[in-house]
Fold this protein.
Amino acid sequence: MGGNDKLVTLGGLADPLFFSAPIDTGEVQFEMLRRYLNSMLRIRLAERRLAEARRDGLVGGPVHLGVGQEAIAVGVSAALRNSDRVFGGHRSHSHVLALGSNVHGLFAEVLGKETGLSRGMGGSMHLWDQPRGFYGSVPIVAGTVPLAVGAGIAAKLQNSGDVAVAYFGDGAVEEGVVHESLNLARVSRAPVLFVVENNLFASHMHISLRQPSDSTARFALANNIPHHVVDGNDVVAVAAAAQALVSGARRGEGPGFLEAVTFRWYGHVDWREDIDVGVHRSLEELNDWRRRDPVRRLEEGMVAAGCWSADQTVELTEQINSEISVAWEQALADPYPDPEAILDRVYAAAGG
Amino acid sequence: MEGRTTHTYGTAILSAFEYLLENYPRVFVIGQGLWSPWYVGSSMTDLDKKFGVERIIDTPVSESACTGAAVGAALAGMMPIVVHPRMDFMLYATDAVVNQAAKWSHMVGGQAHPGVTIRAIINRGGEQGAQHSQALHSWFAHVPGLRVVMPATVADARDLLVASVLCKDPVMYIDDRWLYDQTDDLPPIVESDLRLEGPKCLAEGTQLSIVAAGHATRLALDARDELARQGYSAEVIDVRVLNPFDPERIVQSVLKTGRLLVVDGGWRNSGFSAEILASVVERVSPNAMKIPARRITLPDAPAPTSRVLEKAYYPTSDTVARSALDMLSRS
């Protein structure tokens, strides 16, 4: 018996020479496509602004940028509602923005301002916007995965029909708690969508140096969890898969697992491309992946469908950029938290 | 007395669970062994039968995920109690407790609070060895954002559990199997605000302050009886709430007696006993002390297995009484 016969692998999904054509927009309505494009561009341009600001020394702490990965958060969020419970990780700007958080709140948080999403207490790695369904993000790899399972168990006890979402990466599946969480979610039939943004790298290290297979969906298989493996740079494909899994979870069928294959254009942290520090990360490969650009492919898919033009993209980009500039200037001018915040926010102020 | 019910420490905990589950639909319990709670003495008997397996969730062998799940459920509006029948195994869940629950409020600007209760049971002795024995309250009391309580009495076993679950913050509630057979007659439950709870004087005295928490408080009370038989008057202060720690009541006592003996069921180095001593040193002039303060702790070694070594390892009320008598006879 060949031990590897049944090992799930990504095949062409991990090869940037495939899947670079305009995406097939299928039956998706124009209004939805326009929203996808708007949201993805907004995320990309906001992160570009943060990259520049970090490079120029205006941002004091680390920023983990997800440029190149925008389609995943936008596609998943299309299946969600405000009462759902979304948890993220260190690279979560896209997760919170895709739920509709405002760019100013993100910028102010990254700058440590009182007006930020976490009132200036969290920074880039601790984002919070619970009214929009974003329960929080943390940089301890896999730290929020069990929290999402608990939020799903809560939704089941509350009979709310809501789902929890855990965003994590291909590196996080190397943490033991992810496997406990998959198992616990499955045996308790918790409505949880596990979303693996598989960008093939954990920090500097390629997945081939870390795991026996490049597809993390094998762990869904091992736990008998329904799963989809998709081109993570195809927002339509991501949205369709997320919708199918979320619908099942809302119906009481338990957890789902979505593996979305992508690539980050920046290095693990901050604005550099990290060609020099990556193991198996070459400029050539990065350039190949840039041809699988989720934004451009959506735009071209819309143009091919006859509902969009390149001029409109230029116009939309200008409009978003000017909103981003206003948000950035505002965030720069905003106040920092008072020093009292250090002690005042450790415990709940009100009892009960 | 009318309206009072006789409880052991174990059934007092059970009555707190029943009270919470009956009165608060948002309360649920998650942990290993809950559908066959032989791990936890009399403290959880038949909860699954009374309240259903949906709310009393027995789990896979996954301390880390289950504790994380309780934290996440708390953020989603529930009032979860996660049960660790033995504190040693809970170390797998340290990330959920220390990195997530304790820091959440602060990290998100005070906009969300994971009001989870983590019940950690100290269960040792009986030749169970080094990994079935630990009292790690000092570790957890070190972490801002995590409230840590250690009930020493039958009343507190019940009432501090109720207060912990009603508190909006994450609370580690540490009970001790060596206390389960104590009995007391308890009045009906009155809910209290954990933020207002703190060290309490359990028995007044004039010549020596003995400060302890959890099972060590029991040793202190027994030692006090022995001291009384020998004509000495000792005051026993039960710490009860280790974090946030308010030493005021302890300081008052030491200012009165001029003698301080700390008893702690944990190790010595960087242990909670040191925090008690430091808090007194910072507030009480050396001139007010009749004799330097002392502490009784475990030796700085893992728990041994054989009964002979166990006997040498764990302090008893006699250890406490002898140290106290020595202090009193020298000053």
Remarks:
- Chain B has a mean pLDDT of 97.
